[in-house]
Input
Amino acid sequence: MKKLGLGVLGLGEGRSIISGALNSELWKVVQLCDLNEELAWMRSHEFSLDNFTSSMDEMLANPEVDVVGIYTPDHLHATHILQALRAGKHVICTKPFLNDLSQAREVLEAQQQSGRMVMVGQSSRFFAPFTRQRKHFEGGEFGDLITVEAYYNADHRWFL
Output
């Protein structure tokens, strides 16, 4: 099976997908991109990668990039998703995915026109406590659920 070529946009939080992709048989990290050239250089050396840029257009023009991982500030997600789709790339985007319904409609329309896949990078659904809860729920151990209240205290040290 051919590995999917990954381009990562936004190398602060994007660090998490880089490390995950490098440990996967399904991905090849092709190019890193960040407006902060110093950060792009730092991440490329941290992960022993040699292809980085500060130009999203350059990354989108790279034929080896099949999927763009978007890890930019939240208010830029819609713009970056649309640019990637219009360049013929699949997209994985961190949370929050979009800020409002009008953006969602525009992204949905662009996705349908492009025929590319778009997904939210929601990794916690695969964490052990969540998979255990799902198993118990599907096994009927909770009975009829009426409402669920949950709290999540994010410890961001794992990004470092």
Notes: The two ends are 32 Å apart (CA to CA).
